[in-house]
Amino acid sequence: MRLKAEKRIPFPLRGIYGGVPTQLFERGKTLSDYGINAVWLRSGDVTAQSITLLKSQGARVFAEFNTLHEAAYLKEHPDAAPVGVDGRVCPPPDGWQGVCPTHPGYRAARMEAFRAVLAGHDIDGIWLDYHHSHASWEQAVPNLPDTCFCARCITHFARENKTKLPDATIPELARLLLNRHKKAWIAWRCGVFTDWVRSFRAVVDETRPRALLGTFHCPWNDLDFDGALREKLAIDLKAQAKYIDVFSPMPYHARFGQATDPAWISEKTAWLGKHLGIRGKAAERQKIWPIVQLSDWGEPVPPAQVKTVLDHGTRPPATGALVFAWSSLHGQWDKVEELGAFYRSVM
Fold first, then answer.
1. What is the pLDDT of residues 274-283, one digit of tens each?
2. Nearest-CA neighbor of 101 among 157, 165, 141, 63?
3. Fewer CB within 10 A of the end CB, N or C, for the chain?
4. 42-46: long-range contacts (C-beta < 8 A, 24 or more apart)?
5. Which domains does the chain have, with CATH numbers?
C-alpha cells in the first residue's frame, strides 16, 4: 500500500548534511537561492568561521556527534572492544567498529567531547550519530552480531536485574542470556543506550539549553529484520523520546535496497510518527526531520528521482528534512539544481 501524495505546504526546515557548501558561494549563489536554511556539520568540522558564514546567510547550524563509533579509542583501550557470543572480541562487521557501551572510560571521554562541542560553538543543536550497538546496518542486508558479552556487561546486567547467573564461561552465559533471559537482556541493553541519551540531554541542558538534541537513527520499524531495532541495535525509540527533541531517521532508499521505491521513505516516516505519537503539528515539542539520500551510495540516485525522494521525505509527520550528503552531492550539479527547485517550491 502506498501513501497518497500530500498537498504541498510551506515546509519550515530545509537542510543539507555534510559540509559548508562553499561550492555554491564560489558560483555567486546563496543558500536562499536553493531554499536551504539549515546545515549539518560533523562536530570535528565545526568552526567559528563556518558558523558565522552560515548564519550570515540565515541558516541554522547543527553538529553531528559520533557516540559509539570512535574506533580510535580502542588502540589504547582494547578492553573497550565489544565481545561476541564466543567470548572473544567481535570482529567489526563489514568494517564497522563499535565500542562496548558500559566501558566507563569511553563513556566519560565521549561525554567530555560532547560538552566541548556545545560549550565551544554557537550551534543551534547537536545530533547523536552511530548511537547503536556493534553492527553494520546501513546496507540492504545488515550484519548484526550479538554483543557485548564482556565480563563487565554481564556483571552489570546481573546486578541491575537482580539475576543470579551460574559460574560459567562467557559462551555459556551468552547462550543463557539470549535464551532464558532474552527479554530481560534486551531490555537492559536498550536501557544502557538510553541512559547515554539521558546524560547527553543533561549536558545540553547545562551547557547550551536552547540547543536542540537530535538523533540520526536506523529507519526500521519494530518488526523489520525480526525486531532488530531493539533486539540487535539496542535502540528503544520510545524510551529515548523522553530526552530527544528531533528524530532524524535515515531512510536511504537506494542504499537499503529500495532504489526504485522512494515511497518507502514516507512509509518509514509515517510509522515513526505513529510509533512516537508525533503528528507533525507546529505546537508539538518533538519533531521528525528525516535525512534522505540524494548521493550515490550503493545504488545511484538519478537526477530525475530527486524531486520524488524529497517529496516523500517532506510528507507529514515530517516538519523538516535534510539531504545526504553535500560532500559528494556538490559534484553533481544537476541534482543540486533539482534540490534547489524543490526546496524553493516549499518555502
1. 999 999 998 9
2. 157
3. N
4. 42/18, 43/113, 43/117, 43/126, 45/19, 45/20, 46/117, 46/121, 46/123
5. 13-80+92-142+191-345 (3.20.20.80)
